[in-house]
Design a protein that fits this description.
Two copies of one chain form a homodimer. Chain A is of the alpha/beta class. Chain A is built from 13 helices and 14 strands. In chain A, helix 2 (25-32) crosses helix 3 and helix 9 packs across helix 10 (286-298). At the A-B interface, helix 1 and helix 11 of A face helix 1 and helix 11 of B.
């Protein structure tokens, strides 16, 4: 279908411009492999729609000696405003950015519970949206899109939550519910996929066509970028890592199955073992108890060491399997909590290398990238930017600057 | 780079024609998303180069009432002859096909050993090539390409064997050695990748954009097709499944590591357990001993059952992990040996389903496809056809018909 091809060119060119920041048409054609003629016509469309704009290149920058001044193309920040949200166990982290990804406001909306009914969660999202919009000094009707990242098995294509720890029900058409309530274009995906997108747009993944992001919070998530695209699988629920099995008939997982990676490395998995070894840390919250466990291991407590060591080795085994399967250029280990440092330890990384198929070329680079919920929200904003770019419904909103 | 884009269009169009068999230009444009203008110019080039040809469509077939007769495009079988080879532990299976994949000759070349020095293996390949060429009644200089599939960690891009059970040395530039000796364009890849390509060209994978092929012979192999391309990873050695770990510090594998899937399901893994349980089957060859083990399990021998059951459950666990990670449309279990039927048993397939993340949509289809070495060789021929299509060096060879 010719329409598909045109959409594809638009998308490749927009992404190329976004990645480059500022770029001349001739370089854009070179970088993307799209013909100069198509670059000319497509970028003219994009300028007309207000998604990109021309910007003069200074002579010194261009190193140009004569002829007419060259112009670069750049994303037009004012083209669209979007919101991005990360749903966590007790809060919603939100950002509002312009079309270039410049942050206008950040907001953290606290929630009392971990899981909600679909309508309660929709209400919370709606309130969080109002608050972050107010903080940015805009009306939420000025937003062109809302991206939402949430844990669980999410079909991003349809914004459908097969299962999420944030929801008390299965099979929720969460995108459509939020869209109806807010009146916005809504884009929902698995949160780890959106961390991958954040890395691709703003982080270590820029310019890398194939990489994996593994996230550790209360669960273990994964985002996979192959050939510059987030990989989602046939039913939209691929790239599942936390519930891959690392032990036949192994430890019981929250998901009801046995031997999942999460059942060995997540906080609850560690803490249920602590309760066997010692009862001195009862009564604290889970983060505090986990810290006590880790400190005990550092101080030579044998039981604590035994617990922590196995978690690290199971995590390394799971990562080594990913290296064998994907042979990626780069693995980004991404997590908010300093607590999980023991999973990023040198001996864990070394253990990954020892457990992969041995070939006489360097193994993939492993990068540790710690960041907070706001960067997850930035991934959701990037997803909204991508969604808005595809639909290309220009709302003609201008930011008062 | 505009050249890349042109190559890409050529390749997409050739593949589109190959898949369709016979197809009108207008339908080709529709199916591939390539503009009618590009289809016209590119197919004109391909006709000039002799890679494709026009063929009249009969009126009844086209259902056409008036106007000038429409023509279809098809691959021109006589354009090129290629050879495909599968290197096995004691033989080389070869085919010669035309550019449409029509088989002109099949040949099986026996070898005394399992592993060879690079120069000895090159000699064997060269002799196998002479024999299959003689059988086809052609001179091997009439071949445009030779595709070779071999087990191990192979960088297909560079035809480089990091490690192969068929070679006594590591890091062998096997493509270049065979090319020098035979004077042909040679294309070498991991054999399971080429089974995936055979499924894509000739088998269950036709028209499926994303699928996995898992092969079981003496080892466990995998080929991954994503977005219509065989996935190879950053260093060319991705899609490794047999050496993913299914047990921390588990059974010793031939590769020197512990807990690899192969160390639980390959023939040697089963037979080393047999030697603990009973010595009544010593002195037979491994295929016979394996059959005795399987028969014993069927007849209720407890030790044999214990051995076979664990292999099946470990295999299911590994496959379930692949489903979680890739969420493919289709998994093809492909193997030559009827002996491994126990791994394809209904309870194994059911166990895969129970071990994947539970969502309320149907799981990926699992298809069992048994075939012999000649079909692996066909995959190698398909690889050669693809390689020749890319290089598009027309040798002007015509088959005497």
């Amino acid at each position: 279908m010719a329409g598909d091809q045109k959409d594809q060119s638009r998308r490749v060119l927009l992404t190329g411009i976004r990645k480059a920041g500022r770029i001349a048409r001739v370089d854009l054609a070179h970088d993307t492999g799209i013909s100069a003629a198509t670059v000319t016509t497509t970028t003219a469309d994009l300028i007309n729609e207000g998604l990109i704009e021309e910007t003069p290149r200074s002579v010194s920058e261009a190193g140009q000696k004569r002829g007419r001044p060259r112009v670069d193309l750049k994303i037009r920040g004012q083209a669209h405003l979007v919101a991005g949200m990360k749903l966590s166990s007790h809060s919603i982290s939100s950002v509002i950015t312009d079309f270039e990804g410049m942050v206008l406001a950040e907001h953290d909306y606290p929630m009392r519970n971990i899981a909600f009914s679909p309508s309660d969660l929709t209400d919370h999202i709606s309130q969080a949206l109002q608050q972050v919009s107010a903080q940015a000094g805009i009306d939420q009707t000025n937003l062109s899109g809302l991206g939402i990242g949430m844990a669980g098995i999410i079909d991003g294509q349809n914004g459908f939550a097969y299962w999420s720890p944030t929801l008390t029900e299965r099979n929720v058409a969460i995108r459509d519910m939020v869209s109806t309530q807010t009146g916005l274009n809504v884009f929902v995906d698995n949160d780890a996929n959106l961390v991958a997108m954040a890395e691709q747009y703003f982080g270590h993944g820029r310019g890398i066509s194939d990489f994996l992001v593994v996230t550790i919070e209360s669960g273990v998530g994964m985002g996979v970028v192959l050939n510059n695209e987030v990989y989602r699988g046939a039913r939209g629920c691929g790239a599942e890592f936390g519930h891959t099995k690392v032990h036949l008939d192994g430890a019981l997982c929250r998901c009801g199955q046995r031997g999942c990676l999460e059942a060995y490395v997540a906080d609850y998995a560690l803490l249920r073992e602590v309760s066997l070894g010692t009862d001195t840390i009862a009564g604290q919250d889970s983060a505090e108890r986990l810290q006590i466990l880790i400190d005990a291991a550092k101080n030579g407590d044998r039981t604590a060491e035994t617990i922590i060591n196995r978690a690290g080795r199971m995590f390394a085994m799971g990562l080594a399997n990913l290296v064998n399967i994907f042979d990626p250029q780069l693995i980004i280990l991404s997590g908010e909590r300093m607590q999980f440092d023991f999973l990023y330890a040198d001996d864990v990384i070394e253990s990954i290398r020892r457990s992969t198929v041995q070939v006489d070329v360097p193994p993939p680079e492993v990068v540790i990238h710690k960041w907070g919920n706001m960067m997850w929200a930035m991934g959701a904003a990037a997803y909204a930017i991508e969604g808005v770019s595809k639909t290309a419904v220009r709302k003609g909103v201008e930011i008062a600057s």
